[in-house]
Amino acid sequence: MEISIIIPVYNRADIVGATLDSVVAQTHRPLQVVLVDNYSTDNTLQVLETFKKEHPGDGFNVEIVREEHHTAGAARNRGFEQATGEWVLFFDSDDQMEEGLVASYVKLIERAQRKGKALDLISARSTLVFPDGSSRQAPFHCGDLFANHILHGQLATQRYAVRREFFASTDGWNIDLPRWNDWELGLRLLLANPHVAYMGGKSRVTINHNGADSITGTEFHSRHGEWEYVIDIMKNEVRCSQLKAKYKKRFERLLEYRRMVLAAQYQREGCQELAKPLCQQAYSALRDTYGNNRYWRRIVAPVTRRLFARIAAGKRGSARIARLLY
Fold it and tell me: 229-233 long-range CB contacts below 8 Å, 24 or more apart?
């Protein structure tokens, strides 16, 4: 079974080598590796071409393409056009995969096939590494995937494999979203009603949050409006979906909770002028979904205010409460 790994690259000449080394170390073959240079201005393209020359075939096929539209989503879509594998992994150019990652995906796929089941999507564990060298396991849950993706980004770029034909049936990456494009895509994949499996056990992906060099960066306020725009798009996608009304309401509430989390982040960054109106917007939208009833006034509203205060103070664990509350 051929697996395609798609990696967009932009100005990563000094660090992409570690990612490519982790791909070469994969024990599964055949592999197709599609490297998409997003018109880098350093010598990234030369690094990629050297990598291709050093690995000429033998079940490891490297292709290099270029994408002029300068967003990661456009580069990933360009890479997907070249994909020939039955399953696809999207990956980032500053992260690493454990050597058994692809083989573990294939094992799950083949196990399901022997049982007469067809999978579309597999969610895997990952480890987050921060600029100060600390690390922690990214939240991972076997079930309630809609909620856990909205809250934790469980289908972030590096954290899943997807069947190529299933992915092709969706609209692919939104090329106009410079932020949170994988969060938005993950929701759309779930709205397409995939057959999902979960890869338990140890973490098999290392995601490097390298501060200013990462797509997310170190702060949010300088790009205010971009994050809110993605939340609005996702709310509209939920509203226009075929989900039952009770699920639509729940997921809209969780998205408003994420808006409140963003407002709390603005407050932590000292931007009260951004935090206050955004928090009020999220609070009002949540109140409207409850019809301002007794449950809202006596339980949900006071807990919501406490959650905002916790998040603004940098305390963790609020998402677990939100998943139950909303």
Answer: 229/177, 230/177, 230/179, 230/180, 230/181, 230/183, 230/184, 231/255, 231/258, 231/259, 231/262, 233/174, 233/177, 233/184
> Residue written as tokens 């009833």?
293
Distance CA 107, CA 65 (A): 30
Contact 16, 44 (CB under 8 A): yes
| Pairing mode, strands 135-137 and 96-97 | unpaired
Residues 6+ apart with CB under 8 A from 228: 259, 262, 278
Burial 47-78 (b: 16+ CB within 10 A, else e): bbeebbeebeeeeebbbbeebeeebbbbbbbb
Separation CA 197–CA 108 (nearest Å): 8
CA 288-289-295 angle, to 5 degrees, is 95
Beta strands in 10-59 (DSSP E): 31-37
Buried b (16+ CB within 10 A) or exposed e, 23-41: beebebeebbbbbbbbebe
Q: Please list the pLDDT of the chain residue by residue as tens digits (326 residues).
A: 999 999 999 999 999 999 999 999 999 999 999 999 999 999 999 999 999 999 987 899 999 999 999 899 999 999 999 999 999 999 999 999 999 999 999 999 999 999 999 999 999 999 999 888 899 999 999 999 999 999 999 999 999 999 999 999 999 999 999 899 999 999 999 999 999 999 988 899 999 876 444 444 568 999 999 999 999 999 999 999 999 999 999 999 999 999 999 999 999 999 999 999 999 999 999 999 999 999 999 999 999 999 999 999 999 889 999 999 99
Cis omega (within 30 of 0) for bond into 30: yes
pTM exceeds 0.85: yes
